[in-house]
Amino acid sequence: MSEATTTLPGPTARALPLPARRVLLIPVLLFGLLALLPLAVALGLPSHWLTLVTRAMIFAIAALSLDLILGVGGLVSFGHAAFVGIGAYATGIMITEGLAETLLILPVVLAVCGVFGLVTGYVSLRTRGVTFIMITLAFGQMVYFLAQALSAYGGDDGLTLYQRSTLLGFDAFGNRIGFFYVVLGVLLACYLLVRVIVASRFGRVLRAARENATRVSVTGFQVPQVRLVAYVISGLIAGLSGFLLANQTEFVSPAFMSWPRSGELIFMVVLGGVGSLHGAIIGALAFLFAEDILAGWTEHWKVIFGPMIVLFVLFTRGGLVGLMRKLGAGRDD
Amino acid sequence: MTEPVLALSGIQKAFGALKVTDGVSLSVSPGELHALIGPNGAGKTTLVHQISGMLRPDTGSIRFRGQDITGLSPERRARAGLARTFQITSTIPSLSVLENVALGAQARAVHPLALFRNAARDEALNAPAWAALEAVGLTERAHVLAGRLSHGEKRALEIAMALTLEPAAILLDEPLAGVGREEGERLIALLASLKGRYAMLLVEHDMEAVFALADSVSVLVYGRVIASGEPAAVRADPAVREAYLGEEG
After folding, report:
1. B50 φ, ψ to 5°?
2. CB pair distance less than 8 Å for A1 and B74
3. B120 part of contact set with chain A, CB < 8 Å
4. How high is the ipTM of this complex?
């Protein structure tokens, strides 16, 4: 086929299609608005928002990581909160043992999440569909019960931390605005990283395998291997969000990795729009805002929130990002 | 005669009591287009699945470029240069036509799974992809999502995907199935243009196409090859006429 390379079409035919550019607008706007939040707080927005948005961004990191395997890879993991919980517990236990240094904690968090991801991924990725959902759920619950049994570290009641992680000995996460920007920075870095991965050769194979694994394997790729790597990467990022969560709440509890929490992460991804990455971030923000607002109205807020979720899933295909695209570009089909 | 690119010997496969492949031996030489015909349920697709590695034969061996590939996985066979298309069109609907084709070039690249380099703007992948699209006449549709192509275009796309693997042999499982007359003629012309460059095993129902394209023909009935040879000889074979061609009228 080498002779055919001389007959390439001209540059017009080879230009990239246009829609690729417009997709950038939403994430740029999103991160811009987030970066301005502390300013809004300084100008009078209740400071409660700073805490809420920080927490929402931490969940956004977890939701983003889930979107890599769920939205991009088509693997519905129902145990993703386990990674968040493991990250939080590794952080909590190390701080309790007097090892508060971030540069010590982070490698441990990533190593534990990586090993957990490799083992559980290797087993669960041998299955498909509902079985995969059930196996990831089972692994998640195993970690949940393990955390409950850790009586030396709070057991059922959870573990209160007497200090935050330090960075090179300084209390780097003590300032609320500073911590807000740390979380925003981590979120942005993770978002860019996942975007790059999705657009890479690896990402293309992952995307292709979601739709047609058979075709991908007869093209010469080992689909299970690719999925395992994506699963582990996703677990590492979720573990990172667990580290941040432990530092924000100064408390870790088995509830961090209970199965309803995994379900909430799935919902955040669906709410924002599966597979778009910034959709997962928007979904996480919207989820925590809605929770916060409804909980302010009535203590029975879940009675309202539940049906809202159902209606939302029924009526908006493509999630919030899909909705924005529809509203923003009426001509677009 | 040169050594065959692809040689099956004594392939057997049973699903329970049903023998779907019953001692099939056949070979395809470099550049030869070998057609495999037979009535519905004769086990043609099952045989293609075994050659491409999606099914494992119970007994018998498959040799490809002088190497025994009977135990290899589909991905290993693909990387060794054995490409295939599917009876039911098999593309990646949400990727563009160009990306679908580039996937094959990527499988042959030095770092097929590079984690950080952008794939869509990768000339090392796009150049062979454009060449393959050129070969099948799909350059105009390069940026369309594969799911939006017409049925015949999807068929051509699958062939382009096979070509980027730089295969030594291509298995074509009913490339004309469900395609209208006009697009069918275009596909036949495409296959004719590829003839001689690749060893091809063509499973096809369209007799007109088979006899126009094939260098040799094997007839499969109830999992067994009942005749094999030059098209004219096979067409004249009484057993073939009775078992298969007779129904076609």
Report:
1. -70, -35
2. no
3. yes
4. 0.86
